[in-house]
Specification:
Blueprint: H1 2-11, E1 13-15, H2 20-36, E2 44-48, E3 63-66, H3 99-103, E4 114-118, H4 135-145, E5 150-154, H5 176-180, E6 186-188, H6 189-196, H7 200-208, E7 213-217, H8 220-223, E8 232-236, H9 251-254, E9 267-271, H10 274-285, E10 288-290, E11 293-295, H11 301-307
Parallel strand pairs: 1-2, 2-3, 4-5, 4-7, 5-6, 7-8, 8-9
Antiparallel strand pairs: 10-11
Helix pairs in contact: 4-10
Length: 309
Amino acid sequence: MNYCIDQLKDRGFLEYIGEYGAEITTFVPFVAWLHGEGFLNGRRIITYVGMRPYYFFLDDDQIEERSEPRNWLPIAQRCWPGNSTYHAVRSAWHVYPDFRRHYAAAGRSFDRPVIFLQNKFVIEWAIGPINFMPLNALQLFLEWTKDTHRIIYSRPETRANQAYTSDHNMGLSYPDLQIVSQYPHAIHFEEYCREAGREYNLLKLETLAQSHLFAAAQGGGAHILACFGNSLLLVLDRSEDCSPEGSEYPHAYRSGPYKYLSAEPPTLMVARRFSDFVKGLQLLAHAMPHHGRIDLPARFMPALDELRM
């Protein structure tokens, strides 16, 4: 950390290089701490195009966005404390921004309780797709929720959007949008963003602030959901030490960032198999936010106990 602060003082800026997920879980909180301690007075943070909304606590002259692709950065080259989601613990040098409080009044309201689905279908760790929502599970979920919820479905690689820098993973063709388009209660987030002419991350944070129910495939898209507490979150993580950093399971979920990125962490379910993910989706489809709590029929409590971390 001292090296990081020395670099900031000597150069007048601190630059983030790396993937989206690590930026959300480890770097943004460190920058928030630096800001609170006065280290950024007359200095600036450099990050990727589109990330300004995550640094809402900075003044405009304290942040600069650069236009270049993201790349994974080895842990040994990350100078900030708690620098890996796979190993991080709560740190005295981190401050966790309250995105829900900041963006709750900014976004549109919805006519039904929102469930935000975060999917991906990319080549992971040079292997192929590992963590993704199966098509049959997606269709079942949309059937279960068609009369009760508003579904916001996101898969970032499906559309090019304003002010968005993707990770380096190669996106693959996947016929999920053909299913989503069949259901009037489902909104394809990337298309919604494009039609609205809005900046991607800003609209996403505003939308997430309206939701207390989430499901996601493992990865950076799931990490940001952990920042929106007082919620119910289902994560599919089928990874088995695929990453050079190891496995996020179980540490990240049991005692890592998913337990402290928000003041009231989500009630977290983690599925390691597709069959368990479907079980969690069925539970989520029957969950209802109500005056600061999540109501769930008693028959789903055994499934919650089984998947909860």
